[in-house]
Amino acid sequence: QVQLVESGGGSVQAGGSLRLSCAASRYIYSSNCIGWFRQAPGKEREGVASIYTGTGSTYYADSVKGRFTISRDNAKNTVYLQMNSLKPEDTAMYYCAAEGRCGGRWQLYQYWGQGTQVTVSS
Questions:
Q1: 68-73 and 10-13 beta bridge pairing
Q2: pLDDT at 104
Q3: Which residues pair with 10 in a beta bridge?
Q4: How far apart are alpha carbons 48 and 27 in whole angstroms?
Q5: How far apart are the C-alpha atoms of 103 and 105, rounded to whole Å?
């Protein structure tokens, strides 16, 4: 059963842009919060950005503020992550996940996609 599906990853040069999409089922989308997480080899999984699907309130990690923008399209049950000014340190597997509340650690999120790889070269 597909619940969350990420797309849009790829390989880009530093300074480039990518737009990730997270398509969710209606049931999962109604969980209230959709978050983006990333994990690079040898590093802990970290939160990137999250959004309350109902209100549009957002959260960003300090490392991506001013460069990444999270948004949602409720008609499509889809959350986007626009990533600009990409840096090599942004290289990671990016996952979207759903939970009732935003801002918690990743272990609290109930539903997860399979991930999409983002690679940024210098």
A1: unpaired
A2: 86
A3: 118
A4: 23
A5: 7
**Dist CA 4 CA 115 (whole Å):** 9
For the record, the structure tokens of 63 come out as: 């490392």
Instruction: Please report where in the chains the tokens 């597997």 appear, as a residue.
Output: 93
How is 45-68 classified by DSSP, letter by letter?
Answer: -EEEEEEETTT--EEE-TTTTTTE
Distances (CA, A) of 119 to 21, 61, 93, 104: 16, 19, 8, 26
pLDDT, averaged per 10 consecutive residues of the chain (122 residues), comes to 89 98 93 95 96 96 97 97 98 96 91 97 96
> Which token pair is 8?
């849009």
Rounded CA separation 109/17 (Å): 27
Query: Measured on CA atoms in the order 56, 107, 96, 38, is the torsion positive or negative?
Result: positive
